[in-house]
Specification:
Pfam families: AGP. The protein is 81% helix and 0% strand. It is built from two helices and no strands. The chain is rod-shaped and about 110 Å long.
């Protein structure tokens, strides 16, 4: 009988500790969920769009071709 009572007291003691810790873990869980949602939003930054290329090789080649064609047209006009 004594051992049964000790087991019941011991078991009841553990349940009272768990009943105290259960709300703590609940609050801790809720706080961690809220922080995991809010913290990334606080650090979020919008990324700037990439700059368009100023020029590439084909644009430069086309410009040189137009200048050479204009020079050829002027020389042809002056010679004739």
């Amino acid at each position: 009988m004594i051992t049964k009572e000790k087991k019941e007291i011991k078991g009841g003691n553990q349940n009272s500790k768990m009943s105290v810790l259960r709300p703590f873990f609940g609050v801790l869980t809720i706080v961690s969920i809220v922080l995991s949602i809010l913290l990334p939003m606080a650090r979020a930054q919008s990324t700037a769009p990439a700059l368009a290329p100023i020029s590439d090789g084909t644009t430069i080649d086309q410009g040189i071709a137009y200048v050479l064609m204009l020079v050829a047209l002027v020389l042809t006009y002056l010679i004739h």
